[in-house]
From TrEMBL:
PROSITE patterns: ZF_RING_2, ZF_TRAF. This is Cysteine and histidine-rich protein 1. Residues 51-81 are annotated as: Disordered. Residues 53-62 have a biased composition (Polar residues). Belongs to the ZFTRAF1 family. One of its GO terms (cellular component) is nucleus. Keywords: Metal-binding, Zinc, Zinc-finger. Residues 165-203 form the TRAF-type domain. Gene3D superfamilies: Zinc/RING finger domain, C3HC4 (zinc finger). Residues 63-81 have a biased composition (Basic and acidic residues). A zinc finger (TRAF-type) spans 165-203. Coiled coil: none annotated. The keyword Metal-binding applies.
């Protein structure tokens, strides 16, 4: 019997294992254990000392997957919000900062009641005037609290915020702050309409500002003789004579004893006919100890006025109370203190009696159809009516 003793290290303790190989009963040969070669020992040591790179990478990936967050899924889109369009900030602010009466952004001072409801200066004075005519207390249209010049306060923060809101230029369609829009349209816009500088001698060209220089370089009127341009000079002189006559008439009217003016608001209404026609009317106002109203119509109330490109407004003054003697009235319309209406002064005259208590419909002298459309697009038309009563 041969004995083989091997020493194995385990947990820093030496354990001796005796391997006994007993000889078989039928064979006297001894079983020999082959000694491992040096190359095999080195390969086994390398295999133990250097683990498999593939296994290590697989283990690291597996551990990384365990600690990593789950893959993000594609966010589900809300189909109900897909086709929805959000309003711009300025449009939302416009609905918040608008006047509680006319629902429009003011171009003048802004007042508020004690509860904070906003009213533009035009609507505020209109409410006070209505309350005076009805002999009632003026109230806020929203909360019905009493309003007057003493308890209403001016809101400068809203005025400044409104002045910075963007507004679109009517010529170039670009947006500018409301405080600078008027200056841009008058002096800076390249698309603003202008005349040729030779219009004084008869040139009828009208076009955008950026094309004026090119036209003036090719204009033929500077090369015409004096006889050719005499007709244009005579027409302009006649126009100046009309303005001079109007100015002289106005100076004479200012010498009258009884003069009054009223800031009015034309509100739109519809007739009760089968085809509703548009007309404008003011509330009653007092002048010369009588009650009056102003009515206005578009294109003389013609049918299908919306199909007409040329539009104009006519107005009449109506006496609503009886009079014992005729009233010879001169009147004309001017832009009100809270209005941006562009109108020329033209004086009309009518003798009011009990039978002739309405004047004819006189033309409101607007510069063009575009100005008429702008007034019709507004909810109300603010104007000032000046009246002169001739003494008997």
């Amino acid at each position: 019997m041969a004995e083989l003793t091997a020493t194995l290290p385990f947990s820093s303790n030496l354990i001796t294992a005796e391997i006994r190989v007993e000889n078989l009963a039928e064979s006297s040969s001894t079983i020999s254990i082959p000694q491992p070669s040096q190359s095999n020992v080195m390969s086994q040591q390398l295999a133990i000392e250097e683990p498999d790179n593939n296994n290590t990478s697989n283990m690291s990936k597996q551990q990384q997957k365990e600690f990593d967050e789950p893959e993000s899924k594609r966010q589900k889109l809300d189909t109900s919000m897909k086709g929805k369009k959000f309003e711009k900030l300025e449009s939302r602010l416009g609905s918040v900062l608008c006047c509680a009466v006319c629902l429009d952004l003011p171009k003048t001072a802004m007042y508020q009641c004690i509860m904070g409801h906003l009213m533009c200066a035009g609507c505020f004075t209109h409410l006070l005037a209505d309350s005076r005519l009805r002999d009632q207390v003026a109230t806020c249209p929203n909360c019905r609290v009493e309003i007057s010049k003493n308890n209403a306060t001016r809101n400068l923060a809203v005025e400044k915020a409104v002045s910075e809101l963007p507004s679109e230029c009517q010529f170039c369609n670009q947006e500018f702050p409301r405080s600078t829009l008027d200056h841009h349209e008058r002096n800076e816009c390249d698309e603003r309409p202008t005349e040729c500088k030779y219009s004084l001698i008869g040139c009828q060209w009208n076009g955008p500002m950026h094309g004026a220089k090119e036209h003036e370089a090719q204009c033929a009127h500077p090369k015409k003789s004096g006889a050719d341009v005499m007709g244009a000079l005579l027409d302009r002189e006649a126009h100046h004579e009309e303005e001079k006559k109007l100015f002289s008439c106005l100076v004479d009217l200012l010498s009258y004893e009884k003069i009054t003016f009223n800031d009015l608001r034309l509100q739109s209404y519809r007739t009760d006919e089968f085809i509703h026609k548009l007309f404008y009317e003011t509330t009653r106002f007092s002048a010369f100890n009588h009650q009056w109203i102003v009515k206005a119509i578009v294109n003389n109330s013609q049918r299908d006025v919306h199909q007409s490109n040329d539009r104009f407004i006519t107005y009449q003054v109506a006496l609503k109370t009886k009079t014992q003697h005729p009233l010879s009235i001169h009147f004309f319309v001017l832009p009100g203190p809270f209005s941006d209406m562009k109108v020329n002064a033209k004086i009309y005259k009518h003798d009011f009696t009990d039978t002739e208590n309405e004047s004819i419909f006189n033309l409101l002298p607007l510069p063009d159809t575009a100005e008429c459309n702008r007034l019709l697009a507004a909810k109300t038309i603010n104007l000032r009516l000046v009246m002169f009563l001739a003494s008997n």
